């Protein structure tokens, strides 16, 4: 792969292969938006004035009961509640209006008791543990689907698998507001099923590049498409606060669900699995792709040598680093809004704006990392193994260093935001390292092994989300210190093993000489 040179120059950004990368970028933006939006809507969904740990109850009540209680209660002014409120003076006292909500308070025995009416923003009494389980439950579905999706991607149509998975994920996103009315258990079930289909979409889409990405553009095209996973949280956090504030939190799920349905149909219309079958591809681009890929050796139906795979140190260190990467990425994606809220106590709209910044810079860094890695390779500046180790080093070590700076050197608002942005953004350098390394060592089994490494990685994301929720609920003194230290330890330990055992050449168990084109 190192010595392959494209036969001639062809269009890049105006080409079909880059169009596919942009289409996958949009798919990943929607997938991540559907996954992450609950981390911010949770602030509006949960009643911070009620004692947690009770059974699932919404504070919605019939209008007749509300009118009756309005006459009976001595209203008490609101001290704090998530969202933006406007005081409304009444002859009973003061109530506060949050779009779609009227919240009345009485003062009795030094306790604050809320009686709410919500036609647009139902509020639930979910404990911190339940919130953590809801946020992490989607990873159970993603985890279960990884290896089967990787295996089936070599058998069934990628076009249908990606399109149908995105469509079904979007439909279950639309159902979440309704599920919340019936209890937290149904929300968790919806999130798990949603994760199943998201896992299928995320794993199978990466197999697309086996036939569409010339070797010297693999990192660039892969990082461009996968960067949507980083842009998605930025988009959702940027606009979710405004949607919650103006339309109510259920509309967040309706909007992202509807966008996903539309995009899945667009994928089914525009995507073709093989460059030779695409009706709009130019002759020069088709020849460029096929001639570049003709130098790669692959068989049409390879049998996986399980024992050799399980004994492969390069594969295991890639998996270990995936564990650390997904741990950090999942924690930062899901809990940045809560971290910012705990530090600055701001409303949901401002929280969304600030929480989106780390993801925006992570997306920019991901595109730069992919471009830099391909430039180093095509110009023979560094060997392939050195490139993979360099970008993995930057993607795991820099977030650890900036996380320590966040804990000990950020005494001001601006310092906290700068280190939070850098800790999140620099992790994107892994796009040029561990996240593409499987394709280097075993291109024949890329779909299956990518699913395997994703299982290990997503286990890290699942554990990170669950453990973070538990720590936040049980440790009232310094929970964020413990959480960030666990992330730093994971990154450093994984990086040490990767630098020792990583490889970038095709492994003996992945070699064959039967055919010249997949």
Automatic annotation (TrEMBL):
Membrane topology type: Multi-pass membrane protein
InterPro entries, A to Z: MFS (IPR011701), MFS_dom (IPR020846), MFS_Na/Anion_cotransporter (IPR050382), MFS_trans_sf (IPR036259)
Species this protein is from: Delphinapterus leucas
PROSITE patterns to which the protein is assigned, alphabetical: MFS
GO annotation, cellular component aspect: apical plasma membrane
Chief location bin: membrane
Signal peptide, first to last residue: none
Keywords: Membrane, Symport, Transmembrane, Transmembrane helix, Transport
Subcellular location: Membrane
GO biological process: monoatomic anion transport; sodium-dependent phosphate transport; urate metabolic process; urate transport
One GO MF term: symporter activity
Gene name of this polypeptide: SLC17A1
Descriptive protein name: Sodium-dependent phosphate transport protein 1 isoform X1
TM spans (from-to): 20-46, 130-149, 161-180, 221-243, 249-272, 315-340, 360-378, 390-411, 417-439, 451-471, 483-501
Residue ranges annotated for the Major facilitator superfamily (MFS) profile domain, each copy included: 72-506
């Amino acid at each position: 792969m190192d010595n392959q040179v494209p036969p001639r120059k062809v269009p890049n950004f105006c080409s079909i292969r880059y169009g596919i990368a942009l289409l996958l970028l949009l798919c990943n933006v929607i997938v991540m938006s559907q996954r992450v939006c609950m981390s911010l809507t949770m602030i509006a969904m949960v009643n911070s004035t009620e004692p947690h740990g009770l059974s699932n109850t919404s504070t919605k009540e019939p209008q007749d009961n509300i009118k009756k209680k309005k006459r009976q209660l001595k209203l008490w002014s609101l001290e704090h509640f998530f969202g933006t409120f406007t005081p409304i003076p009444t002859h009973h006292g003061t109530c506060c209006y949050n779009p779609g909500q009227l919240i009345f308070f009485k003062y009795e025995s030094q306790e604050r008791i809320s009686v709410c009416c919500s036609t647009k923003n139902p509020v639930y009494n979910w404990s911190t543990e339940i919130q953590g389980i809801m946020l992490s439950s989607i990873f159970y579905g993603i985890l279960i689907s990884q290896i089967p999706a990787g295996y089936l991607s070599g058998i069934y149509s990628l076009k249908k698998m990606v399109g149908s998975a995105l469509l079904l994920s979007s439909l279950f996103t639309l159902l979440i507001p309704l599920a919340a009315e019936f209890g937290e258990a149904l929300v968790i079930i919806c999130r798990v099923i949603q994760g199943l289909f998201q896992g299928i979409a995320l794993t199978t889409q990466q197999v697309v590049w086996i036939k569409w990405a010339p070797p010297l553009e693999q990192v660039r095209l892969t990082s461009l498409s996968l960067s949507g996973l980083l842009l998605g949280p930025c988009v959702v956090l940027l606009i979710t606060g405004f949607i919650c504030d103006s339309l109510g939190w259920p509309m967040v799920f309706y909007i992202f669900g509807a966008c996903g349905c539309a995009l899945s149909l667009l994928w089914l219309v525009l995507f073709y699995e093989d460059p030779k079958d695409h009706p709009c591809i130019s002759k020069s681009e088709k020849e460029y792709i096929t001639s570049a890929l003709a130098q790669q050796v692959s068989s049409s139906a390879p049998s996986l040598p399980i024992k050799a795979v399980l004994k492969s140190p390069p594969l295991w260190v890639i998996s270990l680093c995936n564990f650390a990467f997904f741990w950090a990425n999942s924690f930062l994606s899901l809990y940045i809004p809560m971290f910012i809220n705990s530090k600055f106590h701001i409303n949901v709209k401002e929280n969304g704006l600030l929480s989106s910044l780390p993801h925006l810079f992570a997306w920019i860094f991901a595109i730069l990392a992919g471009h830099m890695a391909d430039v180093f390779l095509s110009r023979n500046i560094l060997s392939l193994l050195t490139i993979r180790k360099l970008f993995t080093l930057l993607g795991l070590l820099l977030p650890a260093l900036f996380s320590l700076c966040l804990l000990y050197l950020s005494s001001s608002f601006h310092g906290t935001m700068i280190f939070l942005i850098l800790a999140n953004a620099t992790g994107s350098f892994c796009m040029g390292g561990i996240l593409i390394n499987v394709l280097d060592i075993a291109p024949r089994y890329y779909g299956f092994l990518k699913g395997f490494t994703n299982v290990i990685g997503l286990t890290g994301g699942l554990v990170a989300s669950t453990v973070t929720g538990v720590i936040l609920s049980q440790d009232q003194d310094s929970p964020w210190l413990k959480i960030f230290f666990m992330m730093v330890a994971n990154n450093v330990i994984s990086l040490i093993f990767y630098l020792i055992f990583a490889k970038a050449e095709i492994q003996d168990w992945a070699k064959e000489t039967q055919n010249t084109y997949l």
